[in-house]
Amino acid sequence: MKAWSIRSGGGIESLAPADLEVPRPEPGEALLRMLAATLNFHDLVIAKALMPELILTPQLVPLSSATAEVLAVGAGVMRVKPGDRVSPILGQGWFDGPPPTNPDRMLGGSTDGVAREYAAFDAESLVHVPDELSDLEAATLPVAGLTAWHALFGERPVERGDWVLVQGTGGVAIAALQWAKAAGATP
Description:
Blueprint: E1 2-7, E2 16-19, E3 29-38, H1 41-47, E4 59-60, E5 65-73, E6 85-88, E7 118-122, E8 126-128, H2 135-139, H3 141-153, H4 171-182
Helix pairs in contact: 3-4
């Protein structure tokens, strides 16, 4: 299959096409066909080796946000089925609580990401994509969308009547503006 890879420590300049084997889903995993992927600032930080706490594989498949179609599932998978549209979560296996201090299963960081045609991921680390969203729209949500959501509704949730200052015009800022307005705040 076609993919992109970055050499560990090689920086963004080492980004190159790669040919990889199509994975087979292990028990608990789902085989995905990537439909759309997005580039986040987080991906650039990793590619430039600015997150030293992440141990990169010698050849890393970059990118962390995507929409995909489930092609097959491994033994024991009940959460998804072939034909479902899903997005893998950034921190594979991290479902609740504070972020891990040394994330060892971060897509496009310590674990191969989504810049490839096919991938097998833990089925519990997949979320269904609403039919109302296009593949491209849904691919923006796993990192940028959830970053905005956490900023607005995490430690101190925004309430109706609050004023919200959003700096920037990227994916996180646009999502934050939309959610702040939907919550009744003045962006």
